Each structure stands twice: as C-alpha cells, then as structure tokens.
Amino acid sequence: MVPRINGQAMILIYIASVLACSAAEFSIVVPNASVSAPLGSSVVLPCGLSPSLNARTFEVRWSKQGEHDPILLYQDQKVQENVGKDQYRDRVSLIGELDKGNVSLKLDNLTVVDKGEYICFVKSISWYEKGSMNLVVKALGSTPLFLHKEAGEKVNITCMSGGWSPKPTLTWRDSAGRELPNSHTYYRTGNDSEGLVSVSSWLLFSPSDSEWISCTVGLNGQEIREGRIVPLKGFWREAFISTLVLSLIVLSTFTVLLILFRKGLLPHCSSHKNAKAAADSHVSLPAETVPLNATENATQADPHESLPVKSVPLNATKNTNQGISSLYTPPEPTEESSWKVRYKVSLTLDPSTALGSLKVSTDCKSVSYEKPSGDSKSKFPHVLSKEELSSGLFYWEVMVWDKTSSAQPNSSWCVGVTQKPHSDSVLKALCYEEGKGLYPNTQDFTNLTSKYTVTKLGLYLNCQSNALSFYNVDKTSHNLLYTFHNMPHGTYFALFSPGVKDLNRVRILD
Ligand SMILES: *[C@@H]1O[C@H](CO)[C@@H](O)[C@H](O)[C@H]1NC(C)=O
Ligand SMILES: *[C@@H]1O[C@H](CO)[C@@H](O)[C@H](O)[C@H]1NC(C)=O
Ligand SMILES: *[C@@H]1O[C@H](CO)[C@@H](O)[C@H](O)[C@H]1NC(C)=O
Ligand SMILES: *[C@@H]1O[C@H](CO)[C@@H](O)[C@H](O)[C@H]1NC(C)=O
Asked: Which H/E stretch holds residue 239?
C-alpha cells in the first residue's frame, strides 16, 4: 500500500509542475511615466510581457480609459477588423515583435483628444494581466499677444496665447528676471474638435518698476513662447482708444484670415512642405501679429530708418517712439536647436534670375562670379532662390567661404532676402567686403564684427513677425549677428551674391 500511495503522489506532483510550466504567469511592463508626443505625430505606447513570452497565441486588447470599445483587439492570431471606434480606424497597429512578448501599440496622426490613459491587456489560456500609461499630446501655442489699458497710475496688461496642449503655464517677469506674482490667469479649452487650450492673464503694472516685462507661456519650462512689452507712462490716454480700435480691426482681420487659412483658402508657402511647421505656423498666426507692429510698419516705410535692434527692448522704444510694443525675439541659437531642423528648407538657385556675369552650378546650389567682363554695374550681382518664402518660418544655411576650395576668404559677398521686383528698398541682406567688414545692407556704415571671418551663415526668416535673423554658424557657439525687424509683408526670395571681387563661390548648405 505505502509504495503505491507514494507513486500516485509523485505523479500528481509531476502533473502539477507540468501545468504550472505551461500556464506560465507573466507580468506587464509599461513605462512608469507619461508618454508624450507632438500633435500630429505618431507615438508608440510601449507594453511588453515579462518574461518575454511568445504572445502570438494570446489575446491583446488595447483600450482607452473611459471608453467601452477596444481601440485594437488581437485575437485568434490576428488583429480583428471592425472593432473599436472609427476615430482609431487605420491609425492603430501592433508594432512590436509579438513572439518576443512586445505588444506595443503605434498610434498615428495624434489629435488632442487622443490624450489620456491607455490600457494594455494581455490574456493567455490561463493568465491575464494589464498595465496602463498616460499619453500626453503636446502642441506648442502661439507667441503671446498683449492688450493694455490704463488703470489709474498703473497699466493693465493682458497677455494671451492660444493653441496649447496640454494646459500651459504662464509666467510674468520683469526686466531683471524676477517673477511677478499673479493671480489672474484664466484657461479656456476650445470646444472645437481640436480641443486646444488658450490662456490669458492680466497684471497691473507700474511702468516705473521695470523697463519691460515679459510673459512666458510654456509646457514644463521647455517648450516655451515669450513676448515682451515696454509700457510707458503718459502715452496711454491718447493711445488707448486708437490702439483698442486698431487691435480689434487687426484681431478680426486675423480671425478671418485664420478661418480662411484653416479652410485652405489662402495660399500656403509653396516651398514649405514640413507639415509640422505648417501646423505650427497656423497656430501662431493670429498672435504674432500685434497691432503695434502694424503701425510700426506703416510709419517705417523707409527701411533705411531701421536701426539695429538686437532684441533689446529699450532700443525699440526709442526707435519707434511707441509706448507699447510686442517685440520679436529671435530664437536662441544653440548648437542643435530643434527649430533649425524643424524650419529647415532646402533651397535651390533659379539660374534665370542670375544677374551679371554669374555662374550657377549645375546642381543649382552654388554661384560664383565669372571672369570679370570689366563692366560690373553692381558690387553685388545676385541670383534668387526658386522657392518662394511667403508665410511661415524658414531656416537655411549658406557657406560664404568654402575653405575646401579657396584658402582665401571671399573678398565680398551678400546674402539675404528680397522681393520681386527686386530693389534696394526691399533687399534685406548681410553683406561683406574686405576692408569694410560685415554690415546690413540698409546701413553700410555699420561694421557688425571685425573679430572673425564668417564662413557659414544661418538665416531665419519669420514671415509672421516680419523678421529676418542672421546667425554665425561657424562655431559651436552659434551667435546671432543681426535681425531685421518690421520687414514689409509679401513674398520673399532668398538672395545670394558672390560679389565681384573674386571668383570664389557662395553655396547653399543642405
Ligand atoms: C520610474 O522609472 C525610473 C527609471 O526608468 C526610476 O528612476 C523611477 O524611480 C521610477 N519611478 C517609479 C515611481 O517607479
Ligand atoms: C495622417 O495624416 C496625413 C495628412 O493629413 C495623411 O496623409 C495620412 O494618410 C494620415 N495617416 C493615417 C494613418 O491616417
Ligand atoms: C517594442 O517594440 C517597439 C517598436 O519596435 C519598441 O519601440 C519598444 O521599445 C519595444 N518594447 C519592448 C519592451 O521591447
Ligand atoms: C484688466 O484687464 C482685463 C481684461 O483685459 C480685465 O478682465 C480686468 O478686470 C482688468 N483689471 C483691472 C484691475 O482693471
């Protein structure tokens, strides 16, 4: 008897252990922090099994917290068609290697409503487990727009910015960088399908307290937009009515433009194919255009009057003699700034626009002066880009001294933008002449630097703020050389001139 019982027990233990092995348990590994991705992009929601069992025969169910139907259902070894809401159709897929237990979900063309908690549920014959993670959809909003009202001795300044996701933070600072306490910040979520958040905040401010104040709106202090305003006393009473009327006109004009733009009734810049940048630019369209810029444009018809304003607020007040201004601040030029990548355009030269004895290379990327015919009418015969730069943001780089082909720096060159028809008054360029140095074409008495010879220039054209900035991108410390403000509206073409003093070329860098 005793040996037989022992034998049965042994078999039971054996069966139990076999069962335990085949019914392997697993746990779900998901990120412990939120997953975030820009609006319109694709995102992978990672989810894996631990240990990494083959999940090919398992059921995988992805769903969103608060929604009944799954987003994606993998069952009977295939993704089931026609389950889940239409809003996810053709946007979701299993991207990982199922046989290695990777059941990650890819979600394309993110919209703001996609934000939220996602649940990854995996079931085998004998075990199930789930994990969840939060998805944050990020959208960078518009540059702040200001409104201002006199309020006794003080000025009531309102800062507004729209097009954000998630809810941004708004911070006021004075010119010394001190944060100004503020308790009047309001958020509003658009009830359109996009669900983007706008923020506004007002502050009472004594113009004598600080030269200017800034309003910064951003996500996590990383993706930020900043605007500055220079308030002056005494100006307000007279300016108030006209500014208000003007801002209403401009605001309503831009609302109309924005609506047309969204409906695709306005032409987009033809050379600008970066969908992300385009989306971004349409988001920031209304706010970048501040009423005062409009007056500045009107009073500054002569471009020769513009002084070098390197984003120094006080200069701006002196120049324009305006009490209020939203100043355009060119983006910081760090080594690998994402804006450079985002707004990068690949330009090509249009040989039919080449003036004088210019030779355009066959790849349409570089231009040089051909043997002097003796009668060069202009110091800077030029060639234009094929691409029109008409709305949005553009960045490109130009090599003005190709060290690999010439040991000597180019004796002269000129690089910038112009409109058609070209004339000196629409030209905004940075030029160089040996002995004279680097200068903006609008004031050839200003030598910007004599410290070094520039080899590579970065140009950043902001069609919304009507500004063009030049960066020296030779070194790792990419510094801002000059910014043209208040440029006339319109369609621009990039302009390149190798000068007439030598045969060295000027080349577009891609
Ligand atoms: C989340 O993961 C990071 C590393 O991936 C770890 O340092 C952190 O402690 C984790 N946080 C929690 C709450 O588990
Ligand atoms: C994402 O959007 C783009 C442009 O709107 C479209 O061409 C593409 O087909 C969409 N992709 C998916 C998977 O819906
Ligand atoms: C699963 O696959 C995706 C896409 O290939 C990858 O991004 C992710 O890191 C993988 N996750 C795990 C846990 O292996
Ligand atoms: C400041 O202006 C905002 C609107 O722009 C208004 O809502 C607020 O009441 C004003 N504050 C004061 C103290 O006037």
From this structure: helix 236-262
